[in-house]
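Bit of a strange request maybe. I'm writing a small parser for structure token strings and I need a real example to test against, not something I typed by hand. Could someone generate the tokens for this chain?
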Amino acid sequence: MPERPITVWFKGVTPGGYEITLIAPDVDGSKLETAVKWLDGTLANLGIVGLRCSGAEHANGASLGAETKPCPIHNVPMTCHTKGTSKWFSHQLDDGSWCRGKAKG
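Reply from user aminoacidic:
Good idea to test on real output. This should exercise your parser:
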């Protein structure tokens, strides 16, 4: 029985800080692994970082790892934070305040 087609969605951030969504419709299920590896490698070569902010944990409660994206202002990693259904990326500044990668004003 042939594999069913799958739509692959990728959300990421460009080096300039723009969020993008790429959609690859109708990927042959038997070629999914190859398609995802190609997509991941190609986007990494362009400096595009994936957004993975799910707050997911292992069954034992341990974090699955800090998920980050670059701060477009300070060019440092911002960590994903979640609370309820809200999620955001931020990093701490030297003065103790927090930056979410957006200019004040």
